[in-house]
Amino acid sequence: MVLACITMSFHAAHAQQPPLSLSDAWTLAAANYPGINHKKAGIKAATYEQKITRSSMLPQAKMQLQNTYGTFNGSSGAFFPQPGFFNVSGNTDALSGAHVAANTFGSVMADWNLYSFGRQRKNNEAAALQVAHAHSDMDAYLLELKSNVAARYFNMLYTHAKLSWATKNSVRVKEILDLSVNLADAGLKPGADTLLAASSYAQILSDEDHWTGKETASRYQLTEYIADSIAGNTLHNSAYLTPAGDIPAAADSIRQHPYLEVIDTDIRYHQVHSEALGRAAYPSLSLLGGVAERGTGIGKNGVVSNNWQDGFKNGAGNYLVGVGITWNLTGIYSTNLQKKVALQQADAAKSQYDQQALQLNTGLHATMARITEQMQQVRKTQTGVQKATEGYELYLARYQSGLINLSELLQIQLLLQQAENTHIEACREFWELMITNATLTGDFSYLSRRF
User: Fold this and answer.
1) What is the pLDDT of residues 218-256, one digit of tens each?
2) What is the pLDDT of residue 119?
3) CB atoms < 10 A from the CB of 247, how many?
4) Under 8 Å CB-to-CB from 282, ≥6 apart: which residues?
5) Across the chain, which distance is largest between two alpha carbons, in Å?
6) CA angle (428 as vertex; 389, 26 as ends), nearest 5
7) Whole-model pTM over 0.85
8) Are 324 and 286 in contact (CB under 8 A)?
9) What angle, 0 to 180 degrees and rounded to 10, lies between the N-to-C axes of helices 192-226 and 119-185?
10) Residue 103 has what DSSP assignment?
11) At 29, is the secondary structure helix, strand, or coil?
């Protein structure tokens, strides 16, 4: 008995979940949608790139350790073993002993770029702008995600409203069918009325099946973003069919928008990058330093030992410090071309910014003009539904009294059905405009307050 009560309580608690608010849907989407992780990874990557750029300001140290074993034949002369280096060798005729020897060598070199005419500072600024761009890209993506979730959410409300409309119609026509059967049985109406009412009822039931499928599908479509089943959640259909009049005032123009911020950081990056490339044409001043230790199996007396351990003997240590100027003379032309490329990319981004701003502002003014008129249509269709409902109730009473025939009553019911459908479609268009307006302004507060 106790177990049965617990089971019944469990099913009662889960039969109908609390309403899913639009804000809850946004929160679930931001927490679960895979695209968010993609953008977060982009931010982390840009942050690591910034750290790499900053680390180039530190002294660059290199270390090498060698232990070799081989011949040491040579001849006097000078040559270039590889570009940037040359080697001078003396005669080895004075050596005696083995023909091979072990050698050990270790060195540490440091190169600290002290001054490069602000090139490093500009590179740091460019890296910081890349991080800012990644954050702006995330904000723009979140705005787009909000818009997509809102569109799916309101499509679910729309299909639910249409399902409720079809169900309401089936209830009314079923009432007419039952009434026609009773009147026909009483001999007050012809039996053909029941066939006509039954035909209308069958058509209404097919509409109900149609919208049941669409309503279920719309719930599944929303789960793409929220990754959670909402099959049992109730919906805010009363708010959907009664839009409030506190519509946000239209802005004169859009000056700040996540879409514009993405392009703005692009512009600033290309500008700073071009400045960094311009500084690359100048030389850089570096502090150089190094220490080295070496050992060899060739003794100071000219006797060569081929024992491996003797390669650590006869050691010699040296250090070297100084300053150096590096100037890539042949790279001046190519860096100048790269600078021009960056400037052209900045100009292209500016044009893209102007185009995006124009589209946003034009779309905003057009949308606000439509919203005002659409709100008027919603109010009028709502009044039309009220009047049609009152008229239908009067005609239903007249049919019960035998004052009108069935075809007239079904015609009135069809007018009420059309009035309700027109109101739902007007509300759907109104909320679509509000989603567009929220996307254009980046402000979803009106929708979050209502739902």
Assistant:
1) 988 888 888 776 655 666 677 888 887 677 666 666 778
2) 79
3) 17
4) 116, 117, 119, 327
5) 140
6) 130
7) no
8) yes
9) 160
10) E
11) helix
Are the C-beta atoms of residues 254 and 354 closer than 8 Å to each other? no
Dihedral Cα 149, 153, 159, 163, nearest 10 deg: 150
Element spanning 366, H or E: helix 331-400
- Kindly state the tokens that stand for 160: 């639910």
CA–CA gap between residue 46 and residue 35 (Å, rounded): 17
Taking the domain 21-57+116-283+330-450, which CATH number applies? 1.20.1600.10
Give residue 190's region: left, alpha or beta (phi > 0; psi -120 to 50).
Answer: beta
Alpha carbon 423 to its chain centroid, in Å, reads 35
The amino acid at residue 63 is M
Q: What is the CB neighbour count within 10 angstroms for residue 115?
A: 14
What are the two backbone dihedrals, phi and then psi, of residue 249, each rounded to the nearest 5 degrees?
Answer: -65, 150
Query: Residue 217 half-sphere exposure, CB side, CA atoms within 13 Å?
Result: 8
Q: What's the half-sphere exposure (Cβ side, CA atoms, 13 Å) at 92? A: 16
Q: Where does 76-235 show beta strands of DSSP type E? A: 77-82, 85-89, 96-97, 100-115
